[in-house]
């Protein structure tokens, strides 16, 4: 996953209620932090190889990439709220601590 900015990958599924809950939030964050963060959505069901490769055990799952590599320990599972996602991005140095 090569990009000039960090990439947050959202593994989701059409049948997943929590995935539908966080989708608008992720869309909002992508607009809010355009140029600093890219958000990519991967539908899990048609991509079993990616699900296995990135050890996705539940949905939704967020995985952060920097410089084309998974950021160690960055995998998060569940319908997270905006404050939790912002803190997560701050923790991994994607956003400045004043982003909230």
TrEMBL record:
Q: Which species is the source of this protein?
A: Coccomyxa viridis
Q: Which residues act catalytically here?
A: 16, 19
**Entries under InterPro entries matching the protein:** Thioredoxin, Thioredoxin-like_sf, Thioredoxin_CS, Thioredoxin_domain
Q: Which UniProt keywords apply?
A: Disulfide bond, Electron transport, Redox-active center, Transport
The chain's disulfide connectivity reads 16-19
Family to which this protein belongs:
Belongs to the thioredoxin family.
GO CC terms, sorted: cytoplasm
Record-annotated membrane-spanning stretches: none
Q: What is this protein called?
A: Thioredoxin
Q: Which GO terms describe its molecular function?
A: protein-disulfide reductase activity
Q: Where is the Thioredoxin domain?
A: 1-94
Q: Which domain of life is it from?
A: Eukaryota
List the residues marked with site Deprotonates C-terminal active site Cys.
Answer: 10
Site (Contributes to redox potential value) residue list:
17-18
Tell me the Pfam families matching this sequence: Thioredoxin
